[in-house]
Automatic annotation (TrEMBL):
Residue intervals of the ABC transporter domain: 8-237
Record bears the keyword Protein transport: no
Organism: Nostocoides veronense
Residues spanning the signal sequence: none
Name used for this protein in its record: ABC transporter domain-containing protein
Amino acid sequence: MSFQAASLECDGLLFAYSRKSRPAVSLVNSISFPQGRTALLGPNGAGKSTLLSIIAGGLTPQRGVVRAGGVVMHRQTQISQVAWLPQAPTVDRSLTSREYCAYQAWLKGTPSGSALEAADKALALVGLSEQSRALTHRLSVGTRARLCLAGTLATGAKYLLLDEPMAALDPAQRRNFLKLIRDLAEERAIIVSTHDVLDLDQGFDHVVVLRGGRCVFGGSVESFLAGSEHAQRISATEAYVRLLAEDDA
Ligand SMILES: Nc1ncnc2c1ncn2[C@@H]1O[C@H](COP(=O)(O)OP(=O)(O)OP(=O)(O)O)[C@@H](O)[C@H]1O
């Protein structure tokens, strides 16, 4: 089997938060996140954030492995190569936007001499150069969401895991975000956890759907939108609702 340089595979992962609880992630087979943009879908509690945290090395699974380009990743490699933007990131109130991004880059091993340069580039990518000296706590919720994205980009990581990054963005910023990840995806695997299926067609290449910790779909957007009963494509919302209904049956 050949692997793309920037692809991730999750093989047989099992993770439960405690001995008595039901596993939050329980993958029988392998899930692939090829190079490009993958939308990670699933109802509340499906295990999306838990899976992202395992891939980023934040949680250690009781079983299974994460591979990058076909090679098993160890925790240190995950921590250094995977940039994870959690749903509610902590942002130090006393830092400026530039300092926050430089700090994120430094945490991933960028030397302090280059970290400010990486921060400036990342802030420019998300359109926040003018806010570079603003204290983070003065930013609006949506602007802070863009700042957090910039912090993730400043790391230069090849694997980007973004947990509901569009939730606080206005429509114009949402469009900018989708354009930005399209450009970045040329040499990266980007996984975006989202509840919004409307952008699937334009914004993503692949789809993975989790439910109850299991993977109920993994494939191209094209195959996700191909209606099984009708010859024509169906809407993303319809495809999603049908998939969950079929899984219920
Ligand atoms: N820190 C935790 N301790 C115990 N159980 C947890 C913890 N975090 C999540 N869980 C449980 O693990 C399961 C998966 O949760 P997770 O947050 O990964 O789902 P999700 O798909 O990201 O949900 P949402 O769309 O609501 O963000 C749920 O049953 C949840 O209650």
